[in-house]
Design a protein that fits this description.
heterotrimer, B: 132 residues, alpha/beta, Transcription Regulator spoIIAA, 5-stranded mixed beta sheet, C: 290 residues, Globin-like, 11 helices
Chain lengths: 158, 132, 290
Amino acid sequence: MTRADGHTAAAPRTTGVPGQTRPQDSTTHTVCTEEDLLHVRHAVRAATVLAGFGIVDQTRVVTAASELARNAYVHGGGGTLTIEIVRRLGTTGIRLTVEDEGPGISDVDAALTDGFTTGAGLGHGLGGARRLMDDFAVRSEPGRGTVVTATRWHTRRA
Amino acid sequence: MNQRPTAGVPILRLGDVLVSGLLNELDDKSALAFTEELTETIATTGARGVLIDISRLELVDSFVARTLMDLSTTARLLGARVIVAGMRPPVAITLVELGIELAGVETALSAEQGMAALGWYRGASSQERPEP
Amino acid sequence: MTSSDTAVRERVTQVLRANADDIADRWVQLQREQAVLGSDLTEGELHEEADALVAALSAALEGGGRPQSLVHTHEDLNRNVTDLSLRRARGGASPTLASLAVQALKQALLEAVRRVSHESDEILAAALLINQLLDAAGALSFEVYVEGREEIIRRQSRQLLEMSTPVVRLWRKVLAVPLIGTLDTARTQIVMENLLQAIQDDQALVAIIDITGVPTVDTAVAQHLMQTVKAVRLMGADCVISGIRPPIAQTIAQLGIDLSTILTRATLADALAAAIPLTDTPGPDGTDAR
């Protein structure tokens, strides 16, 4: 558990061109089985730890990843989740990109509304994941799959 | 296995209270199997209370939340009161931000608090509560 | 790259290698002279920094790449310039001093070239190369400096937020958070995090959120309060909101904000009086267990 007070973590090393977002590390995971959902959570957790996120931010990002990956698995017929550690002006972030080639979403705005569900969840998946992340974008066309990109920036003792 | 999938989550019976704990590695199938097993146990034992300790869960997404809510409702229909105990602070914050408040689910700070609420008290001799 | 370019580059590298100690010493000396405004760096630290950067500079020149971009592509050089700038940003050096540091290195380097070379063409070509190399370093150093200062500001504002949201223990199993100032998303997250952690640590059964010091309660603030209450309840604890002054109560009513599911009290004392009975663990049918 991280306390709000106490020791300060080492500042992430600042290298490269500042003021510019650039991927430093990127891994792609398939999301085609239930086991994959578990693996994805572990991989995302590991990435948030590497990025120096506090325990609450870790939980936010892993939960968002779980929601997005499940969406791709249940509605998109499987897909991929890419984890990137990104930098912007001295801040580290985790960017998740979840892609599937499923039926797509015809009304993205409606899908982002709480309570919207076509499956067994609570209908908080997409909208909830958006609230857990800082930047969030959905690209989808009926019949052409869905791409969700979501980033959370480091807020703890940067 | 086909007949009756088990979640591998032990369910203990203490009088008319069932005690169980969820571990971190709960996939969707196990979650559903757990619900089924627990519901059946409530019915066969006539339990009046169910304590589910989630102090080891590092993640509760909307699926697990849904499982806990369904379980509470089902158990209530069977005459049992469910208490979910020991939710970690990051999990609580994340759930609220997800927009889920686990409506209808009773919560307790710790398994001990939950057991007390279900009518189980620690003996007068044990003054100190064990660390969670 | 033409053969004369290569020759100049080799020449400068050679000068750097052969006079590494002199250049580093001269650079430190120039920085000491400039440092009228003062800096936290000691002589030893400056020397250490200078030696490492001069070494990285010659290593970078020996490798390939355009001189303008070496400071980005050569990892060791990049790190040394970045560290130099961050040290000045964190040490409270003025932006002028931070940018003069790299300029001073340029001067030290040019002096060293002039000592060994007497052909004006060669000196000119070397000066051009040194400029290309170190102007890029200066630009990077400036960007990193700004970034470093921003990082400090971010950290300080965060620390300020943390300090302004203390969680205090009022009674056995009763905690209180006196909120002062407004309640935005960032603040709510910190309050929640601190409060929930304290609840877990103390196994507290009731948390009192005192909003006496919150100037206004609008829909957004109410929403943030509700969020905090919900999170406390998920943990298995209860929540009481106190310090709702009459004008704020009126605003809440006028805005149609529903706080009916939350136990509210006018003062912290009233809230504590309401909280203490809640710390008795109820029996199975709501009766007191003790």
